[in-house]
Amino acid sequence: MAKKGGSRHLKRLASPEFWPILRKESKWIVKPSPGPHPLNRSIPLLVLIRDVLRIVENSREAKRLIYDGEITVDGKVRRNYKFPVGIMDVVAIPKSDIYVRIVPYIVKYLWYIDIPREEVSLKLVRIENKVLVKGDKLQLNLNDGRNIVVDRADAARYKTLDSLLIEVPSQRIVEHIPLELNKLAIVIDGRNTGRIGRIVGIQERPGMKRRRFLITLEEPGGHRFNTILDYVMVIGADRPLIKVSDRV
């Protein structure tokens, strides 16, 4: 009988291109476990601290650090070395005074930036969809797999692809940023990943679902470029609500 489910193993040659690993050093690499981010948009916790942050020299040291509960992701201790870390996740190692956020990055696709300690409890998330649930409540389903339940009276206020600034791990909503003209946005996928600009145009074109909308962004220097709606995440009005880039 054929085995059900995907493989628990991952070859280095088949791993996402943005992982900074040697492809032919050995055959296998850690495969992210099922979690808030898919394989092609995440980095396993072990690979992050060994190959990206380079705070340990090998997988044995990385596992020891993780098993000892020294690392938190979005305010929660993670002891699974395969845990997938993705866009806007905050990784903290308090004993080493290391606080970083995983962000969309030009060329590298996903990378980290150092953040001030006061931002460790803050995270930007995007509303992927919303559904009505029991108790006449509205459930907001977010891009990192989490859900936030609000009053149904707020249904018209929160729209799909709007962003929320939340506290982690409590998930308290600090600020709501609607996706609309003149808002700042960062590109989270595609060839323009990591670029930041102000939304100056939202154009509908023939197509299916959200991909029929073409977004025009204007960078600080005045250069304009286009991307699709799915690839945009709003990050603020006049400036980003939190640090999401070393260039802004």
Automatic annotation (TrEMBL):
Domain Small ribosomal subunit protein eS4 central region intervals: 99-173
GO cellular component, one term: cytosolic small ribosomal subunit
One biological process term in Gene Ontology: translation
Chain ranges of the Small ribosomal subunit protein eS4 N-terminal domain: 4-39
Molecular function GO labels: rRNA binding; structural constituent of ribosome
Sequence ranges assigned to domain RNA-binding S4 in this UniProt record: 53-91
SUPFAM superfamilies in the cross-refs: Alpha-L RNA-binding motif (SSF55174)
PANTHER family, sorted: 30S/40S RIBOSOMAL PROTEIN S4 (PTHR11581), SMALL RIBOSOMAL SUBUNIT PROTEIN ES4 (PTHR11581:SF0)
Protein name (Swiss-Prot/TrEMBL): Small ribosomal subunit protein eS4
Species of provenance: Ignisphaera aggregans
Classification of source organism: Archaea, Thermoproteota, Thermoprotei, Desulfurococcales, Desulfurococcaceae
